[in-house]
Amino acid sequence: MTEFQIRLAKISDVEPILAFCQYTWENQKDYMHLVLEKRINNPENKVFVVTLDDIPVAMQQVVILSKQEAWRSSLRVDRRYRRRGLSKLLDSHTNKYLSKINVPILRYCVLSENELMLKIISRRGDKKLDSYSVYKADADTVTSYTNQLIQLDLKHFDDIWSLMIRKKILYKKKSFYTQLIPKCQTITPELVKDCLLGGKVFGLIQNERLRGIAIQSYSELSEEEFYIGYLHGEPEILTVLLCELCKLAYSLGKSVVRGIFPLNDIFGDALSQAAFQRIDQAEAGIYRSSLKIKN
After folding, report:
1. What is the pLDDT of residues 160-187, one digit of tens each?
2. CA–CA separation, 240 vs 245, rounded Å?
3. C-alpha distances in Å from residue 71, one per residue of 109, 174, 189, 225, 252
4. What does the mean pLDDT of the chain come to?
5. Are 291 and 105 in contact (CB under 8 A)?
6. Is the pLDDT of residue 145 over 80?
7. DSSP letter, residue 48
8. In a 10 Å sphere around its CB, with 0-12 CB exposed, 13-18 middle and 19+ buried, how is residue 113 labelled?
9. For 188-192, 207-211, 279-283, which range has the lowest pLDDT when averaged over its residues?
10. Which residues neighbour 92 within 8 Å (Cβ) at sequence distance 6 or greater?
């Protein structure tokens, strides 16, 4: 038997990868068949596969988000080759790759019920940054369709950034721009400007003052729902902001509003008052890998 090797995935690997992804979880189906081919074809994604006789038996994805950060996800191992150190092999290869291209930050998400991954995290010594959960609300339950939100553009950037960085405005505010399937990216001026140019930023202005903002995101799995990638504002208007987003989603023909939010009382109360429901009781922990980048 030949040794395990690692390389980038090819389109011809889709079938064997999906074959072992059928057995990722016992009680639910894997979503990989919906996204794998798109990920392999996307140059921002690096889908690494462990092969045996050039046939994939494990995979892991790394997304390069910027010059400073990357996101790791989708560890999958053929059940016939589990407990053979393949996750360690992929981790080592990923770290070497990021070191080579000088990307110092690598983050990832793990659910609190995933005992196997939590053991791997403990072994790595990685740092937990925060706990999040996914919430959703039905957009078609709104009682008034007069929307207070306006679409913001580049002329609003200074006001937006001032609101974002204002100290003590919101305890444990949302620090990342998130996408579903969960992928978190640091909020930067460049990212905000890109979202403004894309028409994805909406604001709540009262008494000629910007009091809250939301940035629309997306999901690999569905284009039928409205995703909140970032939400921030004065604590007393968060509930209004969430309700207004439901109105906006309805006006755009979306039936559901969904987002990932930090687990704290301020967000929890606002989400509850706006009729958002927590989808899964498991917490989504955001972790940062302990990378050693060569200068």
Report:
1. 999 998 865 665 566 899 988 888 999 9
2. 9
3. 9, 17, 19, 23, 30
4. 90
5. yes
6. no
7. E
8. exposed
9. 279-283
10. none
Q: Pick from 219, 210, 204, 203: which is nearest to 254 by CA?
A: 219
| Exposure b/e, 222-258, CB count within 10 A at least 16 = b | eeebbbbbbbbbbeebbbbbbbbbbbbbbeeebebbb
Instruction: Name residue 51's amino acid.
Output: T
How would you classify residue 126: left for phi > 0, otherwise alpha for psi between -120 and 50, otherwise beta?
Answer: beta
**If you count them, how many residues does the chain have?**
295
> Do residues 80 and 55 make contact, with C-beta atoms less than 8 angstroms apart?
no
16 φ/ψ angles, rounded to the nearest 5 degrees: -65, -30
Q: DSSP letters along 65-93, please?
A: -SSSEEEEEEEEE-GGGTTSSHHHHHHHH
Percentage of the chain beyond pLDDT 90 is 68
